Amino acid sequence: MENKIVVGNIKMNMRFSEIPNYINCFKNINSKNIIICPSYIYIPYFLNYNFNVGSQNVCSLEDKGYTGEVSAKQLSSIGVKYSIVGHSERRIKLNESSIEINKKIKCCIDSNIKVILCIGETKEQFNMLKKDIVLKRQIKDALYDIEDISNIMIAYEPIWAIGTKEIPNLNELENTVNYIKTTIYNMYKKDIKVLYGGSVNEDNIDELNTINNLDGYLIGSASVNPNRFLGLINRISKIL
Ligand code: PGA
Fold first, then answer.
1. Residues known to be catalytic
2. Are β-strands 82-85 and 216-219 bridged in parallel, bridged antiparallel, or unpaired?
3. Closest Cα to atom 1, ligand 1: which residue?
4. CA atoms within 13 A of residue 38's CA, in its CB half-sphere
5. What is residue 223's DSSP assignment?
6. What span, in angstroms and rounded, lies between the C-alpha atoms of 29 and 230?
7. In contact, 174 and 213? CB cutoff 8 Å
8. CB neighbours of 179 closer than 8 A, spacing ≥ 6?
9. How far is the CA of 218 from the centre of ligand 1 (A)?
10. How far is the CA of 78 from the CAs of 41, 81, 123, in angstroms?
11. pLDDT digits (tens, 9 = 90+) for 168-218
């Protein structure tokens, strides 16, 4: 349990005035397996503690002429060690394509940023028993032409479980995690870490913790309040 990875995806929830309290709650955390992902503009305030910091996104290009974007090289230069790539909110609401996701991963690898690659099916795909096909397609597209996966982990986030208080059936989730790991093993002959994301909260964390093959969690709304997030972390990895 101690080695479980916990990623906090704060999304656009934080305001500037909330940063001191957040930092105050986390400043004594001594675990590089805790990865906090604030918005780009707040990242500098979270650096130089004994937890890790990730970005919620990264530009798919390294040229300098893309106003408003932030490149992997820039993130790396400030000390960011992780980036979430391919979150379903970006895939769906911002039309992020699998080609872009593949480019983003390559940019991260080139800049030594570890990738938290999000994959997941819609409810409709789930109901039509297409989950496994969809996940395999997302994996193959995202990793196209990528030889080294040592800096990549996968976050399995069923789209229907994000922000809904619904989570998959535990047996099904365990099978899906195995399926993702086997898919990667067949492609690379290497093991990959798989996290689960989607409505992880105080009510379901104990049952989720019983899933043996899970390497950690990607937590959205329950990471917005630092005390709540700390309570959850403590029930995942007993580091406090
Ligand atoms: P949630 O979000 O925990 O609020 O469901 C997870 C995510 O979007 O990564």
1. 87, 157
2. unpaired
3. 220
4. 20
5. G
6. 9
7. yes
8. 132, 135
9. 7
10. 12, 9, 38
11. 999 999 999 999 999 999 999 999 999 999 999 999 999 999 998 999 999
